[in-house]
Amino acid sequence: MADIQSTNAAAPAIIHRQDYSPPDWFVPEISLDFTLDPASTQVRATLSVTRNGAHERPLILDGDGLSPMEVQVDGRLLQGGEWMMKGDALVIPLPGDAHQIETLVELAPENNSKLMGLYASGGLLCTQCEAEGFRRITFFPDRPDILSRYSVCMEADQTRYPILLSNGDPVEQGSLPNGRHWARWNDPFPKPCYLFALVAGDLSCKADSFVTMSGRTVRLGIWVKEGDLPRTDHAMQALKNSMAWDERVYGREYDLDVFNIVAVADFNFGAMENKGLNIFNSRYILADPETATDIDYDGVEAVVAHEYFHNWSGNRVTCRDWFQLSLKEGFTVFRDQNFSADMGSHAVKRIEDVRVLRAAQFQEDSGPLAHPVRPESYIEISNFYTATIYNKGAELIRMIALMLGPDRFRAGSDLYFDRHDGQAATCEDFVKAMEEGGGIDLRQFRRWYEQAGTPHVRATLRHDPAAQTVELLLEQSIPPTPGQPDKQPMAIPLRTALFDRAVGRHRGETLLMLTQAQQSFTFSGFADAPILSINRGFSAPVIVEADRSQTELAFLSAHDDDPFARYEAMQQLMVNVLVGRVAGQNIDEGAVVAAIRDTATDPKLDPAFIAEAIRLPSEAYLGDQMAQVDPDAIHAARDALQQRIGQQLEPLWRDIHANMKANGFSLSPAAKGARKLRNIALLYLVASGTDDGPTMAFSQFDEADNMTERQSALATLANNISNEREAALDIFYNRYRSDALTLDKWFQTQAFASHPDTVDLVEELARHPDFTLSNPNRVRSLFGAFAGNQWAFHHKSGKGYRMVADCIIALDKINPQTAARLAPPLGRWRRFDEGRAVLMRAELQRILAEPGLSKDVAEQVGKSLN
Ligand code: 0A1
Ligand code: ZN
């Protein structure tokens, strides 16, 4: 494979954080004129530019695929030779310190399959500029530390595009000859160009209003296709709740007279926080009981909140450069997590968030793509919208909030927002504001931003009966990650309690700060050895290794008053049995079955919590606990245990399934919890192999008045070979084939199924007439779900690897961003046996040898091979 290097000879440029330098030119004002048309759109941009300090460097305007049709300076048309192209950038030498630059370019939005810049989606024209899409619309210094006031005029066909939206407030509109019309919008807040947006289309508005804490009325609009209007209620309620929450919890008020949201069908990510004009992937706006699961409803609420919260954490205070991305993303995820917890259950939300962190971020942190929360370098910034930047970033803020307590944390956030309002800031600015506003020294804590890798904490408890003391020895280690072989100790806050076996309680929780490689803490007054409950609430994003017997874990699973720790004890009980069995030990499942029975029958517990606690850990999580992942053995062990739990507690599952059936649909936390528990009961029943399992699942599928129960029954059926499986899949397809978001569930359920033929089924589905590479949601539903299905994807034939690699190669020609996001599962080859590792590497090498590969995919695949 020696010639691979030479086929990709031109090494792409690496951008380094240390190379940051302030801009040579500022752009305080920009006026944009769009003559919109899907085949040919003209963009005239007028920039007022000012020189930053004394230098003689020319003005350099970024472009991506643009060629200037005109360049003017101060009203004079420049001749060729008075400007030049350097790569994709436009270079204009300028004599004075302040000038007006005008450029004209032409775009073809209907040919823009990358979904970056101005593109067409389902009859709409819309934009996506973060991170570097604005340069695909017009020539501009495309970096987040250039803040400009925007005035935007759009002209378009009145019938095809009756609605014209942009950032800020609408100021004027009018008709034109030839069936065209125009509208002008002004945004009074200076913003970076990644927050620019426009939308043109035939849209209907769900309208509402919100009165802010200072008494201003804000007009709210959610813009969708007319037929989707009935599916916007939940998003609107979530928006109003978010606005009220940010006022109450952070003292932050909305600042424009209008707040608009638009739903689009083709979108690379979840949504985008453009100032005053959020653009959403429609899956995070549209929801009704017929088509959306409870998870979908929660996703809508969380993403609406996330984008809204960015108005302060991201827009009013933005990022100086893209290395600071977690400044806005980590903080905003932390804010949306707490909002969702306040709207529902704190315990369940924390469990869900930790599950996501472990599934996505811990895997990233232990593989070839590991990077710090504040990275040092990148090739393609789109690849850095990662679980580390978002979810680990949120955990860092959570630790700061824990160490400070609510009042001092609020003092810190107030200082941060007030000090940096209207600025492009850094992670360091945030940490300093927390230190000063909250009164804390975060010198050592800063390492969390610098060092990649998930810290391991070994906890050993030593009891001295004579002295009646216990010593807790804590040892931390951080594994090497790419470019960081040696690590310094981190400051790790661990909420800890010691339980008295006799009384089933602890004597008060303490927050231990582990700051050294090894540290010991002594507690007195313990005649008997207590049981350790540590990292309660998952207070730090670390892996704890504590030697606790199955008896001790069973004790915690019954008595721990911290719901996360209680859940964790249950999970660890199950992990011990499963990992032990995969390693060939015959470990008794009695403690697991008893703990599940006791938890499921405890009347004091919330059904939503019970559902989380009694679920077996995922196959992927089990793989993470092993030195080498054995997908087949893990699947077999987990499946067998699931069956035993199903059989041994069969009457309990039948009871729960009958008792948790609701009378009518509601979205209350209690109703959602009941559905969650009922679905787990069905899963165990079917897993037990009982004769009527498939018919019970089919009845639930058939009779459900909501998608949560219907899809869950379908997913349960999809795992096993049965006539009911085929019937339910057919019915589902025929019922929802015309609704893209719901049809995605049909693809996803099959791709994620624990079925022996999943690999072949996915291959067939990729040829299905409803499968398309041009819609990112559809691609993720099939190949994203499949690559997350450990047993199926790691089929030892290597067929799964080949299919995903084929998809990446084909998609890269259309949409590199979405293609690159499918690569990381192939990069985990070091975690598998030699046979699989060789096959995975071969696919990575095949991708890398592809001529004309995007830098998005080249970066992910290249790093994965190193
Ligand atoms: N800032 C958005 C995420 C986002 C990033 C890049 C995009 O381009 C395709 C789109 C969205 C957020 O955090 O929600
Ligand atoms: Zn965000």
Automatic annotation (TrEMBL):
It catalyses: Release of an N-terminal amino acid, Xaa-|-Yaa- from a peptide, amide or arylamide. Xaa is preferably Ala, but may be most amino acids including Pro (slow action). When a terminal hydrophobic residue is followed by a prolyl residue, the two may be released as an intact Xaa-Pro dipeptide. The keyword Metal-binding applies. Residues 551-866 form the Peptidase M1 alanyl aminopeptidase C-terminal domain. Residues 453-546 form the Peptidase M1 alanyl aminopeptidase Ig-like fold domain. It comes from the Bacteria. Its cofactor is Zn(2+). GO terms for molecular function: alanyl aminopeptidase activity; metallopeptidase activity; zinc ion binding. The keyword Zinc applies. InterPro entries: Aminopeptidase_N-like_N, Aminopeptidase_N-like_N_sf, PepN_Ig-like_sf, Peptidase_M1, Peptidase_M1_dom, Peptidase_M1_pepN, Peptidase_M1_pepN_C, Peptidase_M1_pepN_C_sf. Signal peptide: none annotated. Pfam families: DUF3458, DUF3458_C, Peptidase_M1, Peptidase_M1_N. Its EC number is 3.4.11.2. Residues 235-447 form the Peptidase M1 membrane alanine aminopeptidase domain. Keywords: Aminopeptidase, Hydrolase, Metal-binding, Metalloprotease, Protease, Zinc. Residues 54-195 form the Aminopeptidase N-like N-terminal domain. GO terms for biological process: proteolysis. SUPFAM superfamilies: Leukotriene A4 hydrolase N-terminal domain (SSF63737), Metalloproteases ('zincins'), catalytic domain (SSF55486). NCBIfam families: pepN_proteo. Belongs to the peptidase M1 family. This is Aminopeptidase N. It comes from Sphingobium herbicidovorans (strain ATCC 700291 / DSM 11019 / CCUG 56400 / KCTC 2939 / LMG 18315 / NBRC 16415 / MH) (Sphingomonas herbicidovorans).
